[in-house]
Amino acid sequence: MKKILFLSLIFFYTLSLFAQTGKVLESLEFTSKLVSSPVKYSIYLPPGYDISERSYPVVYLLHGYSDDETGWVQFGEIDRIADRGIANGDISSSIIVMPDGKVTWYCNSYDGSDPWEDMFIDEFIPYIEKEYRVRSKKEFRAIAGLSMGGFGALMLAMHHTDMFSTSVALSAGVIPDKIIANSTEFDHYFGKIFYDTKPENGVSDHWKANNPLDLLESVDIDKLKSVRYYIDCGDDDFLGLGNAELHKKMLMLGIKHEYRVRDGSHSWGYWRTGLPAGLKFISEKFHR
Q1: Which is nearest to 226 in space by CA: 258, 249, 256?
Q2: Residue 51 per-residue DSSP state
Q3: For tag attachment on the chain, is the N or C end more exposed, with fewer CB atoms within 10 Å?
Q4: Residues linked to residue 99 through DSSP beta bridges, in sequence order
Q5: Are 137 and 53 contacting, i.e. CB atoms less than 8 angstroms apart?
Q6: Kind of pairing, strands 95-99 and 58-62?
Q7: How far apart are CA 48 and CA 114, in angstroms?
Q8: What CATH number belongs to 2-287?
Q9: What does 226-246 look like in DSSP terms, one character per residue?
Q10: Are the CB atoms for 210 and 194 separated by under 8 Å?
């Protein structure tokens, strides 16, 4: 009897340790009718997901330029960050979805040949909510990202204020129009997405329809205010000017947000240390 009791205690102790660790599934595929190639994604399932029947809040976590759906797993250590935050109570037990945004800036291309945004909103999110136990109301859905993904997190939340409760942007790729207009350097990054041939004034209508700095002026202010924003950009980051202008515009418009400038540059070290606070900010809404 003592031996059986001892083995039972070991079993339940091992099970409890296992339950404290989330699980990452990497490079899964979703077949879209809107974009030509399968959409890859990685997903973090929180501790206890496999042994529970509850539904969970969801965070869509976007990667940066030239990265893919594995970036936040391999370099961002998302599983370690989420496990630790959930264990200490800072982060809600949530599903975290990391889609491959290629180099789309998470937008529809100007000519409609690559409608990534439409795919994400109309196909991918419904698929995730059907495939996994996700709480599907706005208050339990958030979006976050770094660099190009920070641009995407802001842009998608501003385009779809009815979809996301919170937007967290780390080192967001927001660039003032005047810088885009006066430089040819950005053609490499933005050409084929926002314009075919750069306009004479340097700024295309499609860029202005997606750039968060311009969206602050074109989207209904009450709709913008229905989303919570968290902006974090390092003091040595080359994107600091655009992020500072975003902060200034939000202040002038009366849009409540959190703005952080920490010591650091455009690097994984900065994003790994910044993500826990971003997820905690998101969880404040999830916790209610």
Answers
A1: 256
A2: G
A3: N
A4: 41
A5: no
A6: parallel
A7: 37
A8: 3.40.50.1820
A9: TSEEEEE--TT-TTHHHHHHH
A10: yes
- What angle do helix axes 78-88 and 268-287 make, rounded to 10 degrees? 40
Q: What is the pLDDT of residues 117-138, one digit of tens each?
A: 999 999 999 999 999 999 999 9
Which of 271, 277, 279, 273 lies closest to 63 in space, CA to CA?
Answer: 271
Amino acid, single-letter form, for residue 247: H
pTM: 0.92
| 101 and 152 Cβ atoms separated by less than 8 Å | yes
Q: How many CA atoms lie within 13 A of 12 on its CB side?
A: 5
Task: Give residue-wise pLDDT tens across range 40-77.
Answer: 999 999 999 999 999 999 999 999 999 999 999 999 99
Spatial distance between the Cα atoms of 277 and 157, rounded to a whole number of angstroms? 19
> Tokens 């690559």 label which residue?
114
Asked whether 59 and 142 are in contact (CB, 8 A), the reply is yes
Q: Read off the DSSP letter of residue 138.
A: G
Please state, in angstroms and rounded to a whole number, the distance separating the CA atoms of residues 62 and 123: 17
d(CA 273, CA 288): 25
Report, in angstroms and rounded to the nearest whole number, the Rg of the chain calculated over CA atoms. 20
> Which residue from 72, 85, 74 is spatially nearest to 46, judged by alpha carbons?
85
